[in-house]
Amino acid sequence: MRIAFAGNPNSGKTTMYNALTGRSEKVGNWGGVTVGSKEYQLKKEFAGDREVIAVDLPGAYSMSPFTPEEGITSEYVRTASPDAIVNIVDATNLSRSLFFTTQLLELGIPMVVALNKSDVNAKEGTEIDVGKLSAKLNCPVFKTVSTEEKNNGLSEMIAKAISLCGTEQKAPYLQADIDLHDKAAVDAEDRKRYQFVNGIVAEVETRKVLSQETNKEDKIDAVLTNPIAGILIFAGVMWFVFWVSQAWLGPLVADWLVGYIEAFQEFVAGQLENSPPILSALLADGIVGGVGAVVGFLPLVMVMYFLIALLEDCGYMARVSAVMDPIFKRVGLSGKSVIPVVIGTGCGIPAIMACRTIRDERERRATTMLTTFIPCGAKIPVIALFAGAFFNGAGWVSLTAYFFGLVLIFLGALLIKVVTGYKYRKSFFIMELPKYKVPSLKFAFRQMMERAKAYIVKAATIILICNTVVQVMQTFDWHFQVVEEGAENTSILASIASPFAILLIPLGFGVWQLAAAAITGFIAKENVVGTLAVVYGLTAFIDVEELEMTGGANTVAMTMGLTSVTALAYLFFNLYTPPCFAAIGAMNSEMQHKGWLWSAIGLQLCTGYTVAFLIYQFGTLFTEGHFGTAFVPGLIAIAVMVVVIILISRKIRASFDAKYQLHKNAQTNVA
Amino acid sequence: MNSAAAVNRMSFERFGKMETRTTDTSFDPADERTLLQVEPGTYIIKRIDTEDEDMNAFLFRLGCYSGEPITVISKKKKACIVVIKDGRYSLDALLASAIVV
Questions:
Q1: Which of A220, A241, A406 is nearest to A319 (CA)?
Q2: Entry pTM
């Protein structure tokens, strides 16, 4: 038995779905958080012995889709024929929501209406006559509060939905039999439908506070959406998030955790004392050391997830998107591009998927292409490692990394605008501003734990396997003989990574160890840290205090043979090259265009390479008074990239011109 | 061109366009203003033309169509916040100037 959850954006579908299934799907206080359908079994306490699957769908305002994610919903309820529909209605906006409700009722599928957010109505003194509404709609109506754990009305509502399965829904309002291609007729029908809805609302709803009246929230909005203050506040908020997670609270917890990891590593090494040295190296250094190096950074990531969850929960995101719209529009993106960027600080994959809510195809693809320039949670260990080892744990490193990521997004967007010969096309921006909500600490904590679990699982699977493979590959040569000390360059790993290392010489880090780490980074970015830990036999990178006292940071720096300048170049190279394969996969499915996908990967490669080149060469020029090694070859490589981009641009523009030419011909023919 | 002249020219074009469109003889162009030109307050929507049918239809489904009230809460140079039905929305200048009240 399948029950579909459908309703307007930000009515609380996913919150209800999570409450009923026990899942922790992403929720947030803005329209368009859910961009794909998800399904899972209802909890036993709701379903009893039956197997009931709840299907969570993206929000939609009607059956006719406007953005790609809305299409998923109408397509599902039309073609997948669920056994029942739970229509989640934002009780604070009945007058808009019932339009979609009446459309859903026409499908003939048994339906229950959940008047969600009823607590907000109670607070504002808005009353809805449930009995009357139910009679008018010809279907059961329940008041629900998905955010509450008790007395939330969910069990009665879902029990009713289950009991209705197999019956047939009678529609209270049926659209007249019209030609759906006749715009005027459709328009007239929709007007009639709204009239019907308005009639119901007038009868069942009494409001103490009218929506049109200016309220306290409007005063907050006035500040947050002010073009100057709003942008400064956004910058401040993001600075605070990064500072707390990566310079203050995060490292504090991490220091404490690293002690335990080291103790564990020593314990494992002790246990293996009598076993062959290879096994001991593999287990203690390779697996525990490599995975431990990654897990040690978990607190930084967790604090960040916690703070971002609070931001997403309070209703701020919609305001940011509104205030950033004019700036983003200038470079050919949309205000909605902000949301993927913020989500991207956690993980690039949901960020790329969040681009679906952008309606304009070009804006959507450009955002998909650029959003991963914002360092994700998996890149935090990389940043923290380099900040700790080369810059005394300086907070400016991570702040610069994020800020520079934003700069690259803007520059990239400008480049895309120029290359595609962006012709002026109307691109509208409309964003619902949800009511503010005090963010729930409990919810943020749950989201944080969920992401932390995923992080640990990833460390224990993908990262663990990669580290093991790297460890084996560097221990043996092609004849499967153990590599002797001093002959590390003969290992399998060295011989595979060396050709790539040559390409990196103009960037200042042309050694196979660093090349290998960058390559494994494409599997998962945490691998950069894991691999470095394995190939250099280093652990406990971020024990800042200890490093400072013992000069251990220098040891790390010396072992890697990098100066501050090359370290920064290497760090930025890893941050701004293409994301991990999983994120590239997400890009592929969102763009649905091979040309765009390859341009995206190409652009990211070029960006990472160019940024690293400039930092290394000019950094060396400033610190040592001369350019670094292989300046000219690097310059040639970049010149080649520029030429390729110009050629692509010409080709695209030529095809544009050809199109316009056709149009002109068509017009003259008609004339 | 100074900005006053630009506005003048814009409104000129707008009226010119409307004369070809409207058949209503009681129509008085001086009454027509876009959301961008009005002070905060509640207005009845006269006409919406974004020149993008899907966008018009989308606005319709939010309850934003001719004959319905719309409230401007606040206005800035490049954006405004409005109330349609019981929801608040932020609109950019392009969209706001396509809604005539």
A1: A220
A2: 0.88
